[in-house]
Design goal:
four-stranded antiparallel β-sheet; alpha+beta; Outer membrane efflux proteins (OEP); two-stranded parallel ribbon; single chain; elongated
Length: about 450
């Protein structure tokens, strides 16, 4: 029963390995980023918001263009009229018809509105810049999320390779133990212990492969790919930025951080809001012009004959409107706009402090993880030497299978810890780059 269970497990691993062994598509980091920029729903929404802001800051939404209105109308009357003059016979008229037609083209243009239109146009320009920064923030967050998943796939991929080597070593140990048992050089307990270790290594490999497949599906969702798409591999190469370059990024962080740049745009917008509100103190000058055509046909009466009248002509005018007192609404708007601007200034100071703290924390975190990564590299070398010597001693029968297994487990833990430390350090570097505003400017 135990042998059949082992056989089924090994067959499952064989087929999973065969599928993995097939040549799969390799998605590089650059390709993944390009696909995300093209397909990710969140980024597409952000791009559409930028397009809306671009439309809003155009000339057609500025108020600087005149208005042109066309009007036309027609009227028809049908009446009965009974007239009794003081002298003479009464006049009874039935079905009296009268018609009227009119058409006109009207032009209006605001010559001056207290500069409100000018500052509103400037504010729309700032809002467009703000929308681009918001889109950039969305792209940065998506990119960080994308690379976190990408590097998790890389880590699990390397762990699978490590576990495959461990499993193969455990299988070789079972074969050796079975030969020794057959020739009376060991007891059945040694064989059973070796088989238990194979089972444990097989289960760990299966679970890691399942985690890898699940994480690949997560990446497919971020890239807007079908989760049932064919399998793929990722690039497991990791490069770190030079220290001097990273220090330069940190020195310029406050000028490039996307959150601070957005606050600068908000400050400019609220400053324009104050000026827009102050335009309520000034008069507005409007120009109007029109061309009109009218036609009227009236029926005859007891005293006047019927007539037809046609008129057409051009008219124009200028008007000045000055709201001398609007009940205090303009005063309140100006006061509130100034308070809002002051709040934006306070918020920027608060965010600046938080950004400095976050950068210091991220830098310390990155340096710590990078140090752990270097230590784990040395740890792997040490455990590899220990495992190779233990393997030699085990083959010579000088140490027990338990001691050999411990050396094997130590090497496994060291390698997986190295993979974790390497990708943890890279994610910490990416988080630091995002805070310095350089995440979209570097080669990964």
């Amino acid at each position: 029963m135990e042998r059949s269970g082992n056989l089924i497990l090994l067959i499952a691993l064989f087929f999973m390995g065969a599928v993995t062994a097939q040549e799969n598509e390799v998605i590089t980091k650059e390709e993944a980023i390009a696909l995300a920029l093209e397909r990710n729903y969140g980024i597409e929404i952000a791009k559409n918001e930028v397009e809306i802001a671009e439309n809003n800051q155009g000339i057609f939404n500025s108020g600087y263009l005149p208005t042109l209105t066309g009007r036309a109308g027609a009227g028809y009357d049908l009446n009965d009229r009974f007239t009794e003059p003081e002298e003479g016979d009464p006049l009874d008229q039935r079905g009296i018809e009268s018609n009227s037609y009119n058409a006109s083209i009207n032009v209006g243009y605001t010559l001056f509105d207290g500069l409100g239109r000018y500052y509103n146009y400037k504010s729309l320009k700032e809002q467009y810049d703000l929308s681009k920064l918001q889109a950039r923030e969305t792209i940065e967050n998506t990119m960080l999320q994308l690379l976190s998943v990408y590097y998790e796939i890389a880590r699990l991929t390397e762990n699978v390779e490590v576990l495959k080597d461990v499993l193969q070593t455990s299988k070789d140990r079972v074969t050796r133990a079975e030969y020794q048992f057959d020739y009376g050089q060991s007891n059945n307990l040694v064989v059973l212990n070796a088989r238990v270790d194979v089972n444990n290594d097989s289960v760990t490999l299966l679970q890691t492969r399942q985690q890898l497949n699940n994480t690949k599906r997560d990446l497919n969702v971020l890239l807007n790919r079908q989760v049932t798409d064919k399998d793929f591999e990722v690039d497991t190469t990791v490069n770190f930025i030079q220290k001097l370059q990273l220090e330069a990024f940190i020195d310029e962080a406050e000028a490039n951080n996307v959150s601070l740049l957005q606050l600068d745009r908000n400050l400019a917008i609220t400053d324009y809001d104050i000026k827009i509100s102050k335009s309520g103190y000034l008069p507005a000058v409007d120009l109007t012009g029109s061309y009109g055509w009218n036609f009227n046909r009236s029926a005859a009466t007891a005293f006047f004959p019927g007539s037809r009248q046609t008129t057409d002509g051009i008219s124009g005018g200028v008007s000045l409107t000055w709201n001398l007192f609007d009940g205090g609404n303009t005063i309140v708007q100006i006061q509130n706009a100034k308070i809002t601007h002051e709040n934006q200034e306070l918020q920027k100071k608060q965010v600046e402090l938080g950004i400095r703290r976050d950068i210091a924390n991220a830098l310390g975190n990155y340096e710590n993880r990078l140090y752990v990564y270097r230590v784990q590299e040395e740890n792997v070398d040490t455990n590899r030497d220990n495992f190779e010597r233990s393997e030699e001693q085990f083959n010579l029968g000088r140490i027990t299978s338990i001691e050999f297994r411990q050396a094997q487990v130590n090497l496994l833990d060291a390698k997986t810890s190295l993979n974790l430390a390497k990708y943890d350090a890279k994610i910490a570097e990416l988080e630091l780059l995002q805070l310095t505003g350089q995440l979209l400017n570097i080669e990964l």
